[in-house]
Amino acid sequence: MKVSELVEKLGLTVHSGQNGLDREINGGYVSDLLSDVMGNASEGMVWITLQVHQNVMAIASLKDLAAVILVNNLDPQENTIAHSNNENIPLLGKNLPAFEIAGKMYQLLNP
Amino acid sequence: MKTFRTDLHIHTVLSPCGDLEMSPANIVSSAIRQGLNIIGITDHNSTKQCETVWKLGTNLGLTVIPGCEITSREEVHSLALFADFDALAVFQEFLDRHLAIIPNISSIFGYQVVVDENDQILEEIDGYLGASIDASIEEVEQKVHELSGIFIPAHIDRPRNSLFSQLGFIPPELKVDALQISKLADEKAVREKYRIAPEITLVKFSDAHYPGDVGKTFTFFEMEKPTFIEMRKALLGEDGRWVHIP
After folding, report:
1. Residue A38 is nearest to which of B73, B136, B168, comparing CB atoms?
2. Which residues in chain B are contacts of A77 at CB distance < 8 A?
3. Residue B59: which H helix or E strand, with range?
């Protein structure tokens, strides 16, 4: 599934990184510790988090993640948006907690 | 140049996790017993216990630096230290603006009380001080430096509430005066693991929550006299001042 399809099916907000919407998704990861994501997430995953710091996009880029979803309608910091655009990794959002977003995404990826 | 035994990370009874025995009087007497020359008072998200410790310490020849251990939005703990009580008051206003009011349940989190020099309770703080404030670590650092304070991310090698656990690496725009490593950490190993540049100073402090821990871990400051300006120079390695972990 492509990120654009996930955006459409879950009704996600696209904060930035529109150029990366055709990235292919091959899984998901939920964590708010960036050190954990650095160690345990893998390429092509969509990362669900409440961290809005610019380091989020640096790590998404380092791990070549497909996209990042911010939970609870949180606003990203300005430099996080800039980083997402530079790296072409979509920064998405939804007014739902991590549990709900992960549940819906899991169903879509494992029909 | 003289050597000053310095512990700049000490909690008081005001921190919910601080022992009730961490009264200003006990902290000062423990610090003197341990041979400390300079202490920093750093409660979680509050500066309100600093002045009493400062008064008691100053009377006994102990240098007391007022400050705070802030939990920023990312749940990173950082130390802020200030030269005077005017700067401290402005920083307290910043904390008041940014701390979410989550009621403190003292039976779970612990008591949050401000006491006087005779251990009499002056005030009980309602909002839970262990919560994170609604400001990023960069916003906190900028505020501290705007007030000519010292900014030191705390226990950076710990698996929780540290710069590296929460943010993975040092954000490029963050300006630190030093980094605090935890009690048992090996300075060289931490530098290698986190690839910390040689020009960044590492320090160790006690993070005391009990009187017996005050000054158990400390850093030597080599400088002319125990003042805030000298301390900043020592942390930044300026004018022949420097610090070293024993």
Report:
1. B168
2. 136
3. helix B50-59
| B142: Cα within 13 Å, side-chain hemisphere | 6
Q: Which residue of B has its CA nearest to A31?
A: B166
Cα A39 versus chain centre, distance: 17
A-B Cβ pairs (cutoff 8 Å, strict)? 37
Chain A hits for B72, CB-CB cut-off 8 Å, are none
Q: How far is B184 from chain A (nearest CA, A)?
A: 21
Contact (CB, 8 A) for B42 and B69: yes
- Provide the β-strand partners of residue B133: B99
The answer to whether the CB atoms of B168 and A77 lie below 8 A apart is no
Mean pLDDT of chain B: 96
ipTM of the complex as predicted: 0.86
CB-CB under 8 Å, B166 with A58: no
Spatial separation of the C-alpha atoms in residues A57 and A29, rounded to whole Å: 14
Enumerate chain A positions whose Cβ falls within 8 A of a Cβ in B.
32-35, 37-38, 51-55, 58-59, 77, 79
Find how far residue B131's CA is from the centre of its chain: 17
A32, A37, A55 ranked by CB distance to B171: nearest = A55
pLDDT 10s digits, A38-51: 999 999 999 999 99
Distance CA B130, CA B152 (A): 18
What DSSP character marks residue B105? -
pTM above 0.90, yes or no: yes
pLDDT digits (tens, 9 = 90+) for B123-169: 999 889 999 999 999 999 999 999 999 999 999 999 999 999 999 99
What pLDDT is attached to residue B105? 85
Interval B193-239: pLDDT, tens: 999 999 999 999 999 999 999 999 999 999 999 999 999 999 999 99
Confidence (pLDDT) at A110: 93
Rounded average pLDDT over A55-76: 97
- Enumerate the residues of chain B whose CB falls inside 8 A of the CB of residue A40: none
Q: How many CA atoms lie within 13 A of B117 on its CB side?
A: 11
Spatial CB neighbours of B63, under 8 Å, sequence gap ≥ 6: B4, B37, B38, B39, B57, B226, B227
